[in-house]
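ASSEMBLY PREDICTION REQUEST
Request ID: AP-0331
Submitted by: J.K., bench scientist
Number of chains: two
Total residues: 892
Priority: normal
Notes: Please return the full assembly, not individual chains.
Input sequences:
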Amino acid sequence: MSTSPSKQMHLGAFLMSVGHHAAGWRFPGVDPANTMNFAYYKKLAQTAEAGKFDLIFFADRLAISDRFDNRFDTTVRYLAQARPEPISLLGALGAITDKIGLAATASTTYNEPFFLARAFATLDHLTGGRIAWNIVTSTNDGEALNFSKQEHLEHETRYGRAHEFLDVVTKLWDSWEDDALVLDKENGIYADPSKVHYLHHKGDWFGVRGPLNVTRPPQGHPVLIQAGSSDTGRDFAAQTAEVIFSSQPQIAAAREFRNDIHARVLKYGRTPDSIKILPGVMPIIGATQAEAEEKLRHLEDLVHPLGGLALLSDSMNHDLSVYSLDEPLPELENIRGNQSRYKLVQEMSKRDNLTLRQLGKRFGGSRSHRVVAGTAEQIADNFAEWFGSGACDGFNLMPAYLPESLTDFVEQVVPILQERGLFRREYEGDTLRQHLGLARPQNRFT
Amino acid sequence: MSTSPSKQMHLGAFLMSVGHHAAGWRFPGVDPANTMNFAYYKKLAQTAEAGKFDLIFFADRLAISDRFDNRFDTTVRYLAQARPEPISLLGALGAITDKIGLAATASTTYNEPFFLARAFATLDHLTGGRIAWNIVTSTNDGEALNFSKQEHLEHETRYGRAHEFLDVVTKLWDSWEDDALVLDKENGIYADPSKVHYLHHKGDWFGVRGPLNVTRPPQGHPVLIQAGSSDTGRDFAAQTAEVIFSSQPQIAAAREFRNDIHARVLKYGRTPDSIKILPGVMPIIGATQAEAEEKLRHLEDLVHPLGGLALLSDSMNHDLSVYSLDEPLPELENIRGNQSRYKLVQEMSKRDNLTLRQLGKRFGGSRSHRVVAGTAEQIADNFAEWFGSGACDGFNLMPAYLPESLTDFVEQVVPILQERGLFRREYEGDTLRQHLGLARPQNRFT
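STATUS: Completed
Returned structure:
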């Protein structure tokens, strides 16, 4: 009995340092020295590939977190802040994997489109079509200050820049037609210049003549991922994204979000199956539910509340050090950072009646993403329920402490999902687009 | 009998597409489809490592060549123009090698220091200290037009920017002291914030607050390479470079160049052994001298003269399509591109009384670098003579057609150099600095 691929969920592994949980580095069995260690990342990538994940995913930040108290002391002292630059890391991990997709985050606010188009096209060639770009607009002033700017762009402005940036990048990817190479050694004709195109792009933000000096990527375009949840962010995603990494802790809201995205996608002339929605989730696996809950409690005990608040300050681009730790999160306006993240945190804070100290611990855990603690069977049930009810097309896993959280999931949860026909037993294609069931884009110049 | 390392030469392999020679892609045995193929680059890197090379080296360009006739038709039609973005490529090749150094070219004119510092620091971590950055200021308007600029910066201006860029990058590499990580799981102290430093850099070109969000690279600083040969370029190299990739076709001039660099180095308070000078050379190996010369002749026959002139136009940032192909290179002033390259080409053109057509073929061959055609024994003799006479500290090999030119050198010339005690039989260290005999830089914040 075979199961149609469209009935199977997609899984990403969002790998962060030595664990997503702010206290992951302190957990038993974790080596906190691994944050820059290639052998460690290699093992993670190969574990995820053995688990037949669609992709592994790396975040990015362009500064040390220091919005809290206007110093980096809290984050440097209590958190594993150092992390690899993801484009170089993707190059390395592509070389030692065969099938799994690889996603790197890169900012449209602090990069140039020619550079990113070229790097992602190169990676897509080197990996035979396994690359995705997670498009972000960055979050705060600390990043601006490392790029000769005084402050971070306003929300709408940076989405304007993101739109133009993406337009230029996809045009650059198309600037060589698929059949531009002639490779006629006898007559000395390497390529057909009539199939290579200038862009002559001149917009509000960029002037880029093109063409790229890399041929068209194997996937046509590397897969485009986004995480924006604001109204502007949703609209941008509906126009351009192929995967949405969402933050949706509640099943009903997740279903509404997916319906909303599908409606927007139709408005832009796309079909709902051209976009896959993968909410973040942090699974905590135990032999019993009690053991899983105990692990989670232990992790929460180990988080320094100021570490979590420092991360939240960064995400909001607002210094929370000035408020009392024993009061709730105050009402704030004009957040220049991640607005939708702020809303989620505010809801969580009110719902569970949290003080700022408690909120710091909670945010340091999963950054407002969903946490599921239970046995492998319970986690599989939970994933099946979300997936089966149309709340998502799969999940972006946020392993709490590494490598164990990932290994446990691959060894214990994946076989159950496979047994139920909810997840692939083998890769059926070679490219990330094939894993995700996404079409290869037409070339606009052909 | 052991030979002191200081008496041994250093070897780089400057790998360009499917061969350095403009007609390399047409040569028998070469697969021109390899320009973006990872398996191919992997084999090259492993061959160079089997040959105990100090490093492999990748150039970079930020545009398709189109200075000639203001179109890219000539270069796209006759040359293998597509090539990988070198930072991603270095990530990939670092993952499948153990000892060999890896150098990527990156421009100070069209990048941001925070990004490059972070990428090179990451690569240095992932490879355990085997990375070098070849610092260039880029060459022409085609590159400017891909980065929202109208024209390339003037020579002196772009060196001013390069100085400041490098200052910021090295400060970022130092922004975490070597012992900043505490990793105290018990007490929850990840790092010591007093050993992490803001730069608060504000200069003519950049405002960069820092610190980096990557810990200090294993080599302290990745090795710094430069190729500038103008007076400004030499001075910049003497202050900052650790390896110079020079273009010196004549032994006497090469010795003068090396003496000049040593004198300048002393002026800046450095010692001559803190800088290694590796002139480019294209060896053409035959079973007999006649066979080698026949190979070279065949390669030259296969070059389209307009392809070579198009490359030269780009390098000079001056369109040569307006001159007669049957006349010599005219006297030109105010070249905004590679000035010292222009001088070399002009000397070569006068010395050998070349028409523009002949010059195009010659430049398409080795881009004005030295070509040595002969048996393996003759090439080893020639290398020994240059090295022994103080003309250089080793060579940056420019294999004409790949993989064969590299394989032949590793199998035939390297054993002779080893036999004579002129080249290592085994790697003695683990980092590129150790291969090159370069000290690990002190941290300016410690």
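REVIEWER COMMENTS: Chain A touches chain B through 83 residues (CB under 8 Å).
SIGN-OFF: pending second reviewer
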